[in-house]
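To illustrate the input format used throughout this study, we show a single complete record. The first block contains the structure-token representation of the backbone; no residue identities are included at this stage. The design step must infer an amino acid for every position from geometry alone.
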């Protein structure tokens, strides 16, 4: 049996500890990578089509629509086109879509966290 001179521990024991450390580092790295990939996917999922336009739903967009007083307005979509919007209808669509995407993000993030702890 081989020993380290200073610690009197077998090399096999130290190798298994090293392998455990490497595995924990890999899991942490995988978690951060998966978390970043999930966030990128969610950012794409936040897009919603409306009246031949494509809009990214954000809290700022929801706040803007909530504070606007006119029933109709024109908004610039993702492709820089002016799109006519029925404010109440679009606000309802945006709120529902945003909440659905956020719920999905939360659920998937919890799954990633669980896998990390296993």
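Output of the design step:
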């Amino acid at each position: 049996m081989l020993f380290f001179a200073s610690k009197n521990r077998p090399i096999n024991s130290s190798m298994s500890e090293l392998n455990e450390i490497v595995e924990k580092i890999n899991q942490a790295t995988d978690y951060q990578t998966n978390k970043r990939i999930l966030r990128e996917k969610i950012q794409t999922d936040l897009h919603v089509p409306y009246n031949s336009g494509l809009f990214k739903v954000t809290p700022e967009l929801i706040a803007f629509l909530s504070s606007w007083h006119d029933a109709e307005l024109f908004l610039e979509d993702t492709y820089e086109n002016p799109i006519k919007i029925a404010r109440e209808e679009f606000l309802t669509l945006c709120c529902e879509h945003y909440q659905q995407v956020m719920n999905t993000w939360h659920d998937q993030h919890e799954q990633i966290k669980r896998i990390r702890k296993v």
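Structural context for interpreting the output: The CA atoms of residues 90 and 96 lie 10 Å apart. The chain is about 65% helix and 15% strand.
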